[in-house]
Every structure is written in C-alpha cells, then in structure tokens.
Amino acid sequence: MKIVFILVALLQLCDTSSGCNSGLRRDWNFPGSDNQILFSPDAEHCQHLCTQEASCLFWAFIGPDCKADNRHFHCFLKATPSGKPIYQNFMQGTTAGYSLKSCNAYPKPSLCKVYQDVDFPGADYRTFFTVDYKQCQRACTDDPGCQFFSFLSGTFGSPNVRYKCHLKFSWTVPRTPNVIASTDRVSGFSHELQILPSYEPECQDTLFPNTNFPGHDIEVHPAASPELCQLLCNAHPRCTYFSFVSDGFKCYLKNNPNEMVPKYTDGITSGLPSQSCPLRNERKPFFTDRIIEYRGVDFPFSDIRYFQQDDAISCGNACTEDPNCQFYSYITTSHLCYLKRVITMPAPPRVTKQANTVSGFNLRNCPV
User: What is the spatial distance between Cα 252 and Cα 177, in angstroms, rounded to a whole number?
Assistant: First the structure.
C-alpha cells in the first residue's frame, strides 16, 4: 500500500506541465533552485508569498515538526527556466507546491489563523498588557498600522511580561526594489493601487524643499519623489517625519517625537506625514493630464511580463488594466513596456517556536 501511495503522489507531482496547480504537497520537498528565502508561519502563507513574488514559480516550506531540517518556518521561493522543479523527494514535515499565478488574478489572502506556541519576533511598534490573545488581535485589527501580532499568555515563562501584546508592522504598499536615473525610461504605478500621491496645495505645504532633518533614521527605501516618500511615512506607524535625497532617490523615514531640527541642504526635501493628503484612487478611463509618471526614472527588477507598446501612457494604462501589475517601466528607445510587482502581503521578519505565545494577523481581510 505504501508503494502505491508513493507512485500516486509521484504522478501528481509530475502532472504540472500546464494550468493551475493549487494543491499542497504534504511531506514533499522541491530541493534547490532557490531565489529567495523568507519566514512564514505555514504552507498556505508561503504559497501566497510565492504567488506575489514576481519570479517565483514553485516553493517549499519547512514546518515546525520537520526532523530532517531544523530551518523551521522557512519559506523557499524557487524558479527554473522550465517552470518545474529539477528535484522532488519525500521529506516528512515539509510542504511543497506551485505559485497560483496561473490560476487566476492574484488572490487576496485571508490570514485568519492564529498560531499557538509561535512567536513573530521583531517589527514591534506598540506594546501593552491585555487579558488574552483575542483582545490583542482585535487591537491589531482596529489599528491601521498593525499587520500581525504576538501575545504572551498568562503561563509565559517570564512573569514580568505575561499578558503582553505586541503589535507589529509590515509593508503592504508596493515599494520598488530600486529607483535609478535613466534617460530613456518612463516609470509609474498602477492607478488601481491607491498609492498615487496628491499634489493639492495643502499637501505641498507639508513638504520643505532644500531642507534636511538629520539623524533619527528608522528605515531607508528607494522612492521616485518626495511625494512617494511622504506616502511611505504616512503608512509607517513609527514615522514622525522624513527626508528625501533626490541624488540617489533615497527616502529616509525618521522617528523623533521630541524635536525636528531643520538644516538647509541642497537636493533634499523633507516633510511630515499628513493624513490630510489621502492616497488617490484614479479610475478608468485615464487622461494624459491625470497620469502621474516619472520621466528619466527606471524601476528595475520585479518583472512579471513585457511587450511592445506605442508610448509610456499606453504602458501605464496596461499596468492599470492588469490586476497583477503594481508598477511599470517603459523604454522609449525600444518601445518595450515592463509590468512589475512585489510582495505586499503581511510577512513577519522571523517566525520561531515559543511556548505559551500566540501569534497571528489582523482580521481585516477575513470573512465576517
């Protein structure tokens, strides 16, 4: 019977030449061909990470009960030119599978589970004491900045931190992996994403040209403009102000609630997060004077596909019409349009075993 089971499983693994492969291969591994390694609390989350990562075609997840490999909660994103694993083998405690890219438009994951005896270390921005993990999860769901949480129960080893709730942040707005100057490039974002900056006068009043606020950096990210840097500051719950360096397209998010010391510096624009500058959600049809594009700027990497297009506006519209596209770059000399995307689902920076700890995600995308 065991031989028959293995043969059936092998036949299922081999039947991956076309179409949607949404199944989870429990106790199987696709060794090698790693593109990226992330942390994940379970196989379903790992599959969504692979689906959202532009180059990932298949994946493998090492579960907490795996005895053959102690890299527990590691999610391996993989790809080959053929789109198929080079190696496949039985491995207790691991799960393997394929990206859901071929199944449909990118699904929006519902991260409704909680994980007992699991910790999501790092990424804290707020802590407090509360009666149980449900209250902690409710606080995370009600806080727009919170993406996941960890709660230390009443039986946690250290009595001084029992009943402590840790609210944690992870980026869910698309951030380009890099921004570089390139004379024959035009880049921009999908107009379906609600990440387009507002250029209203009241929003411009929160930007200070030729001004730097030195020090107190918490994170640095590529950004194409001061307005996009401001959006990143708006989204981060710890950001109190920012500085954007135009030479290099660097956005410095800063945290100092006590003071903000300006220093005149050419080529740097600083500013404040502003809830009065809402993210814009332009709807189709699009008009030339409403398109926000960045000329002479390239967003390299993270391509999902490319094709010939007449002009940059058509490329931007193609990105908006494709539910998988978050941002794009257009090459004016070759008329090639590159559609791109990055992972935007909540992803803990680490996942570990931890007794008497409960971790999970906010419930904003869960069914009522």
Answer: 15
